[in-house]
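Trying the structure run again after the queue cleared.
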Amino acid sequence: MKAIKIFLFVTFSMLAIFAYVETGTAEEQRKDVLYTCNCGPDCKCNSVSTKPGNCACGQPMKWGHVVKIEGNEALLCTCKEGCKCSGLDPKDPTKCACGSSVKRVSLKGTGIYFCNCGGSCMCNTVSDSPGKCKCGMELKKVD
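Done. Tokens:
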């Protein structure tokens, strides 16, 4: 009987630990994800957010992850949600490393804070609040 109790205790403890670890999803931990308007090139709403939702046009925003920041623009990988490709295709800078097209998004006036530790930053950190980038620099916002 004692062995059964120990077995059950260990089993439930392991389940509790796994449940705790799984509650913080990978998306919550990522600091390179932006959601943008996906209405097409004619749309000028420039909706950008660090959280999913609808753009100013009322359409669902599309997930993307930052592969580079150039000045006040974020270059986003447009592949499937969850992609973790790193950087641009060295042979074609209009595509990310996984081969999807890159979307340029202006961060000016969006309220998004971002790292720009040089003219061309590869830290790829974006946030909806002030703080520090993983490189140690203060995140900036362009109004």
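The chain has a mean pLDDT of 82. Worth checking whether this holds up in the mutant runs.
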